[in-house]
Amino acid sequence: MRLRNKPWAEDFIKTHSTIALPDPESYKGNWKSVFNNDNPLHIEVGTGKGQFITGMAMANPHINYIGIELYGSVLVSAIENVLEAGTPANLKLLNVDGSKLKEFFEKGDVDRVYLNFSDPWPKTRHAKRRLTHANFLRLYEDVLVDQGEIHFKTDNRGLFEFSLVSMSQYGMMLKDVSLDLHAEMPEDNIMTEYEEKFSAKGQPIYRLEAQYKAK
Ligand SMILES: C[S@@+](CC[C@H](N)C(=O)[O-])C[C@H]1O[C@@H](n2cnc3c(N)ncnc32)[C@H](O)[C@@H]1O
């Protein structure tokens, strides 16, 4: 993602603290108090400008969503998306690093993790930075319910192949693997910004669901 520095981002995020929550550590183990209900919680790590998570929240009011984005300058666009959508009550954003999930969630807080068009980190020496590396799979498992799921979409064949291997070797069960999602185009598919961009260029979109085995 090309980053345009927005010096005002921090203030903008602070003034929208009911959408982009400050101090997410304080909700660890108690996210139900944020949403005032017992509904399942789905998170997206690397939410970008938030088109996917906002669309999901509007389409599924009985699921709670949290979009996690590292860069404030990008999160600003996600906040704008949420405002445009009328600020759905089942959607919150966090301006935090996805590699620190355990600071904000405890085991069982999260019912599903979405990863969409994660940075591919193509160099072998950067493999550990890929969000589907075993270290990240362990991290997600540590906050997910037993037999929780990851749903992953990407345009990047190398990252997709790496993820298939990484998840299989981790012992996860792969389901609904697609090498051309848009050829099938499930009715409930909500496109991300990157998905729109790459599919408009005719590139195939890869998708999989992976489930952790029971402990
Ligand atoms: C290539 S963009 C994809 C954005 C969006 N998911 C989409 O599909 O259009 C990847 C996003 O992940 C964010 N990201 C990368 N590493 C992250 C991390 N460790 N924690 C949170 N966000 C991260 C980046 O800042 C960027 O906005």
Helix content: 25-40%
Count every beta strand, where a strand is a DSSP E run of 2 or more residues: 7
Average pLDDT: 96
CATH superfamily: Vaccinia Virus protein VP39
Key terms:
single chain, 215 residues, alpha/beta, Rossmann fold, seven-stranded mixed sheet, 8 helices, 32% helix, binds S-adenosylmethionine, S-adenosyl-L-methionine, SAM-dependent_MTases_sf, transferase
Mind explaining what this structure looks like?
The chain is of the alpha/beta class. The chain has a single domain, classed as Vaccinia Virus protein VP39 (Rossmann fold), CATH 3.40.50.150. It is 32% helix and 20% strand. The chain is built from eight helices and seven strands. A seven-stranded mixed beta sheet has the order 3-2-1-4-5-7-6, sandwiched between helices. Helix 3 links the parallel strand 1 and strand 2. Helix 1 packs across helix 4. The chain is globular, with a radius of gyration of 16 Å. The site of S-adenosylmethionine has 21 residues, from helix 8.
Sum this structure up briefly:
The protein is α/β, with parallel strands linked by helices and 215 residues long. It contains eight helices and seven strands, in the order H-H-E-H-E-H-E-E-H-E-H-E-H-H-E. The protein has a seven-stranded mixed beta sheet with strand order 3-2-1-4-5-7-6, sandwiched between helices.
Q: In terms of topology, how is this protein built?
A:
Blueprint: H1 9-15, H2 32-35, E1 41-45, H3 51-59, E2 64-68, H4 72-84, E3 91-94, E4 110-116, H5 134-143, E5 144-154, H6 157-170, E6 173-178, H7 181-184, H8 193-200, E7 206-211
Binding site for substrate: 123, 155, 192-195
Family: Belongs to the class I-like SAM-binding methyltransferase superfamily. TrmB family.
Organism: Chungangia koreensis
